[in-house]
Amino acid sequence: xxxxxxxxxxxxxxxxxxxxxxxxxxxxxxxxxxxxxxxxxxxxxxxxxxxxxxxxxxxxxxxxxxxxxxxxxxxxxxxxxxxxxxxxxxxxxxxxxxxxxxxxxxxxxxxxxxxxxxxxxxxxxxxxxxxxxxxxxxxxxxxxxxxxxxxxxxxxxxxxxxxxxxxx
Length: 168
Fold this sequence. Notes:
SsrA-bd_prot_CS, RNA binding, cytoplasm, RNA-binding, SsrA-binding protein, globular, 7-stranded antiparallel beta sheet, 28% strand
């Protein structure tokens, strides 16, 4: 028997994902305990895609929510107007529909309603097919003492690295 020579990697090897990250929410991991993650499509206009391709977007203060109709929306994300756009340019802070499967939508809505979790956007990126995607996470907010503990561990690991580097 011959091995199949399709575009699949050998068993045990990871495939390299070649996607371009446009915007990343770096503070999310500090403010929230990140749980399950989901990849969602974004319903965008043409000028929004062009603005994203130029690498201009912020999702630091944004969040997502599922409404009563069972649709997910990205709130407060800023995609600035496309500079070469005409009168049909988009609003920078408009609501953007998220494209998810029904099962994922139900899971998110249930987690938010029953467990008091938040849907936090982690990054906007273009996948290998050139589609704009949003990585979402179900997250629970950290308390102040948890944040302090994380900061202590980070400071100690830095200090430990300095001490070992100076001695060694």
